């Protein structure tokens, strides 16, 4: 991960994840905790594997969001808010979320990555989140015990 861009290989095509200053700071902080692990969130029982999909659901449940939010729900929330509140084009948000064109012809010819726009979008998104007022009432938080 250099200069706020992480390259991930999905389906044998490189996916570039543009990161905000805030995200980079959090990742550096997390790295101090996880050390030299391959994963930011390693599996507790086997650090050579990532946490399971179910772990995210368990954490959300313990935070009081059961039935109201899922891990994938954050992606939907981000897409809708970035388009409606920040005014970004669907294609740009779609590429950031690693959505592939559904049409085989579009997949073969449309290789636009929109990297400059995505980098600005992710910084705008992080700044938008930072500017949100604190919630009036937060759900009850139980100590998380990741398994």
TrEMBL record:
Entry keyword set: DNA integration
Q: Does the keyword DNA damage apply?
A: no
| Matches recorded under InterPro entries | DNA_brk_join_enz (IPR011010), Phage_Integrase (IPR050808)
Taxonomically, which superkingdom? Bacteria
- Look up keyword Transcription and say if it applies: no
Tell me its family.
Belongs to the 'phage' integrase family.
Instruction: Please state what the protein is called.
Output: Tyrosine-type recombinase/integrase
């Amino acid at each position: 991960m250099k200069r706020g861009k992480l390259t991930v290989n999905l389906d044998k095509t490189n996916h570039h994840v543009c990161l905000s200053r805030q995200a980079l700071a959090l990742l550096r902080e997390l790295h101090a905790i996880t050390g030299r692990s391959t994963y930011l969130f390693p599996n507790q029982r086997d650090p050579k594997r990532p946490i399971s999909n179910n772990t995210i659901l368990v954490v959300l449940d313990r935070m009081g969001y059961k039935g109201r939010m899922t891990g994938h729900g954050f992606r939907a929330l981000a897409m809708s808010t970035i388009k409606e509140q920040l005014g970004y084009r669907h294609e740009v948000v779609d590429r950031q979320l690693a959505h592939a064109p559904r049409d085989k012809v579009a997949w073969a010819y449309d290789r636009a990555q929109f990297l400059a726009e995505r980098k600005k979008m992710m910084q705008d998104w992080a700044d938008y989140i930072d500017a949100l007022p604190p919630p009036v009432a937060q759900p009850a938080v139980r100590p998380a015990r990741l398994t």
